[in-house]
Amino acid sequence: MQRSVQYWRLVKTDGSALDGLFPAERVVRALRGASSKGFDRHRQCRDGMVLIAHGLRENPPMLILDKVRHENLPSIGDGSGTRRAIGLSADEGLLEPTYCMFANDNIVAMLMSGNGPRAKRLCDYLKAKLGVEVGLDPILRRDLDRVLDEMRVSSVDVAVPAARINRDLVGGDWAEALEANRVLAQDGVVKVGVAVGRRGTRDQKDRRRFHIRELIDQLRGSGAISEMQSARVTGTIRGSQRSVDLFADHFVERTEVDADRLANPERSASYAHSVLEQSLADNASYLSEVVPRIVGTSNDLNPRFVELPDDERNR
Predict the structure, then answer these.
(1) Residues 240-296: pLDDT tens digits?
(2) What is the side-by-side order of every strand in the sheet holding 189-195?
(3) How far apart are CA 224 and CA 139, in angstroms?
(4) How far is the C-alpha of 196 from the C-alpha of 279, rounded, in Å?
(5) Gap between the Cα atoms of 103 and 277, Å rounded
(6) What confidence tier does 72 reach under pLDDT thresholds 50, 70, 90?
(7) pLDDT band with cut points at 50, 70 and 90 for residue 198
(8) How far is the C-alpha of 132 from the C-alpha of 137, rounded, in Å?
(9) Chain centre distance of CA 234
(10) 3-class SS at 203?
(11) Which end of the chain has the smaller Cβ count within 10 Å, N or C?
């Protein structure tokens, strides 16, 4: 069975680099401490999704972010196809995991499944439950940071499934534009674009280009690209037309996994740990080329577990 390992870089919420290394060990330690003290680690997002995180190892740091399903549960079928309820008690739910391993230079590798939480949910959970505000910048297949810096940008166009749009997806001008168009699209795909246009003076066009670049950086830093169908930037480099898709060019490794070991509750965490460690080792050379070197520790981030009644799952 194949699964994907997505690669991201932890950044500030405005998309700029953190001042030092992300305190991943302290995040894992805080989660493990909350678990040992019996604190409720559930987080109910604004759109109703319920998350719970589990701190695992500190070297390298790793956590599991589970989506907890209490509704729309599948049925169990016998040999003849007869269905019966899955039979969960009132305080039980299905756990659909995303495994997150933190590496050098603020890299985070995520072993994804089709039903687990998307990458953006990690930022939501860290902010709500640990008081840590960060964004996610996708690590790209090529050195697209250099390409974007060299590009004379003319437009950015995004396509997002309407069901994925909410106020937590991406803020600023994007939030209003996507929300306004979501109403029109209903259950379809929302497409929003911003272009420099032909009218105006050179100074006016340059200001528009600068604003579009700000929108691109905001989009990348929010982690919203993980929810999108496409995010295309067009422009010119030394007079030649260029186009890049931030979604399609996101560095994602397809890896073979043992389905039985990954589905086994007693073995899945250690197995996912080995899968992610191997993936990081296999791609170490490439990652070192495209991700800036980070030294020192970020003093702005101090993870402390927070248990807020208005944040929790309704029991």
Answers:
(1) 777 788 877 778 887 888 888 888 888 899 999 999 999 999 889 989 988 989 888
(2) 189-195, 152-161, 230-237, 240-245
(3) 13
(4) 40
(5) 9
(6) confident
(7) confident
(8) 16
(9) 24
(10) helix
(11) C
